[in-house]
């Protein structure tokens, strides 16, 4: 029986009282119109982490009205790139200043490890800085070749009022993949964080006010998908919805927005394969596979949750992956040594376990883990690092998003077969290959149907590089200059210069 590495009971003190979060509407912090609130219990420590206002349709109505008024009548959409960049850079500095405070709350609400949360907050500040650089450099185009009397200018303008709906797995990072880009474009926004992780978005609102963000430019409504998310996607005053979360809700948003034909940008699920060729650097590949599947307890759209290993090296690869998996410290997310923390909710833990049990019933073999992981002294939910081998491509565990620390192992004989298994999928978020042969890597990179391809690495991301999915993994892109483009309209201005237009009527 392989022994799993467990970290219990950090010395970090829990906050004396829960964080109190309200809506930010037109520059003011407000309770809900009906006074309702909701609590978030920490998934790792069982304490009340936060108490938040529970938004109503009337709260969304007020927030959208503020964003609309500010866009239509305020100065923000016409402000200079310099002014927008100045604000974004100030927010980045304030995020750095408050990193510890934000990280602690992120851990208590999401269950992710403190060292990872700090790194994510640092990465988020970098996104605000990158978006500042885009605010100053974005431009349209000019056409000076339309003939002697004509000049054409293509203007880039902010799309308008944007609804931003975010999930619970990377609360601060994901809002920072959207909001600074929308602000750089000159949009005004209404944000709804997940009801499980609302508080760090509230802190971001505080930092925006401190940095001098004008009232009404950023509005935040806390609460549940119904009614807050629904109202944010159906309101005719909203021009665009940007959403990260499940494919199921993504599809319902596309349906909800069709009545008013809003632009919709979606970052949805993934079932991201890594192909391990026999000539791969196996030490490096094993480490990346272990990182890819256990990072954020597997609650990650980019989770490397299925691997395709060449049959000649499969048993050796599984044995090495099992040994390394057992060394990953699972446990108290407040302990700096912990690399994998708690599972977000009891329902979600049950869903993870059901996938493992169903696979075992269908003939797959559980080589490691496969059970809940009680941790001494912690009133939380944890799941063992789990490896399921002998998985066939048609099993749900090979096709659907488990969103837990569960690795599915499939095998193949030829690169052609591997590419066909990779592409026989509803999702197309990311995919990777491990081989020392550059031709093999390029062949895979060009033929795999996914928005991101990694060769001899996994889950490296940069603000400069666009991110998003093909097929049911989404539409549109975040990050890079494409991430800004999503929030821009294109306007054609055609001008006659000097000479009078020749008359149509003789
Ligand atoms: P959801 O897709 O349900 O939630 C994401 C966000 O959308 C939350 O803020 C949620 O609100 C909101 N929402 C829910 N319903 C609506 C609606 N009808 N209109 C507008 N907004 C809505 O994800 P879950 O949190 O329920 O997770 C379920 C599964 O989704 C996970 O098990 C995982 O497989 C996948 N997932 C994928 C993510 C990714 O990054 N691709 C991220 C998170 C989850 P609220 O929850 O507050 O009610």
Write the SSE topology.
Layout: E1 6-7, E2 19-21, E3 23-25, E4 28-30, E5 37-41, E6 48-53, H1 57-73, H2 81-97, H3 99-110, H4 114-137, E7 141-143, E8 150-158, E9 161-165, H5 171-185, E10 188-192, H6 199-211, E11 218-220, H7 225-234, E12 240-244, H8 247-257, E13 263-267, E14 273-276, H9 282-294, E15 306-310, H10 314-327, E16 330-331, H11 346-361, E17 365-368, E18 386-389, H12 396-399, E19 406-412, H13 415-423, E20 427-428, E21 430-434, H14 438-447, E22 452-455, E23 470-471, E24 474-475, H15 480-485, E25 488-496
Parallel strand pairs: 1-16, 2-6, 9-10, 9-12, 10-11, 12-13, 14-15, 14-21, 15-19, 18-19, 21-22
Antiparallel strand pairs: 3-4, 5-6, 7-8, 8-25, 13-24, 17-18, 20-23
Helix pairs in contact: 1-7, 2-4, 2-6, 3-4, 4-5, 9-10
Describe this structure in words.
The chain is built from 15 helices and 25 strands. With 506 residues, it is of the alpha/beta class. The strands form seven sheets. A seven-stranded mixed sheet has the order 17-18-19-15-14-21-22, with helices on both faces. Strand 12, helix 8 and strand 13 form a beta-alpha-beta unit. Helix 1 packs parallel to helix 7, helix 2 packs antiparallel against helix 4 and helix 3 packs across helix 4. The site of NADPH dihydro-nicotinamide-adenine-dinucleotide phosphate has 26 residues, from helix 7 and helix 8.
């Amino acid at each position: 029986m392989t022994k799993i590495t467990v970290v219990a009971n950090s010395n970090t003190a829990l906050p004396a009282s829960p964080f109190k979060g309200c809506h930010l509407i037109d520059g003011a912090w407000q309770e809900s119109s009906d006074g309702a609130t909701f609590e978030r219990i920490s998934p790792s420590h069982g304490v009340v982490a936060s108490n938040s206002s529970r938004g109503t349709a009337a709260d969304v109505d007020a927030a959208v009205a503020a964003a609309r008024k500010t866009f239509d009548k305020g100065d923000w959409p016409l402000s200079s790139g310099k002014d927008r960049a100045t604000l974004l850079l100030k927010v980045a500095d304030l995020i750095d200043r408050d990193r510890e405070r934000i990280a602690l709350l992120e851990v208590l609400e999401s269950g992710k490890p403190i060292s990872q949360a700090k790194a994510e907050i640092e990465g988020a500040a970098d996104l605000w800085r990158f978006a500042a650089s885009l605010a100053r450099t974005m431009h349209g185009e000019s056409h000076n070749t339309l003939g002697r009397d004509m000049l054409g200018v293509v203007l880039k303008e902010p799309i308008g009022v944007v609804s931003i709906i975010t999930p619970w797995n990377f609360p601060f990072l994901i809002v920072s993949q959207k909001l600074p880009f929308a602000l750089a474009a000159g949009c005004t926004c209404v944000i709804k964080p997940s009801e499980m992780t609302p508080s760090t978005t509230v802190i971001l609102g505080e930092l925006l006010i401190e940095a001098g963000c004008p009232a009404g430019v950023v509005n935040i409504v806390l609460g549940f998908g119904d009614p807050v998310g629904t109202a944010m996607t159906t309101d005719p005053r909203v021009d665009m919805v940007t959403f990260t979360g499940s494919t199921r809700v993504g599809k319902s948003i596309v349906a909800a927005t069709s009545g008013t034909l809003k632009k919709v940008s979606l970052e949805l699920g993934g079932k991201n394969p890594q192909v391990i060729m026999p000539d791969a650097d196996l030490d490096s590949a094993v480490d990346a596979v272990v990182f890819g599947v256990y990072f954020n307890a597997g609650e990650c759209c980019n989770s490397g949750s299925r691997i395709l290993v060449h049959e000649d090296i499969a048993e050796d690869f599984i044995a090495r992956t099992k040994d390394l998996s057992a060394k990953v410290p699972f446990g108290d997310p407040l302990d700096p040594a912990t690399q994998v923390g708690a599972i977000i909710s009891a329902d979600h833990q049950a869903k993870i376990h059901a996938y493992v049990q169903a696979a075992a019933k269908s003939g797959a073999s559980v080589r490691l883990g496969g059970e809940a992981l009680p941790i001494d002294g912690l009133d939380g939910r944890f799941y063992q690092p789990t490896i399921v081998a002998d998985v066939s491509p048609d099993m749900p565990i090979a096709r659907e998003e488990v969103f837990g620390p569960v690795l599915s192992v499939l095998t193949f004989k030829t690169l052609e077969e591997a590419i066909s298994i990779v592409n026989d999928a509803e999702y197309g978020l990311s995919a990777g290959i491990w081989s020392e042969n550059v031709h093999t890597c390029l062949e895979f990179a060009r033929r795999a149907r996914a928005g991101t391809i990694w060769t001899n690495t996994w889950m490296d991301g940069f603000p400069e590089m666009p991110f998003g999915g093909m097929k049911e993994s989404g539409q549109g892109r975040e990050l890079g200059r494409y991430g800004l483009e999503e929030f821009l309209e294109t306007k054609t201005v055609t001008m006659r210069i000097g000479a009078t237009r020749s008359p149509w009527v003789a």
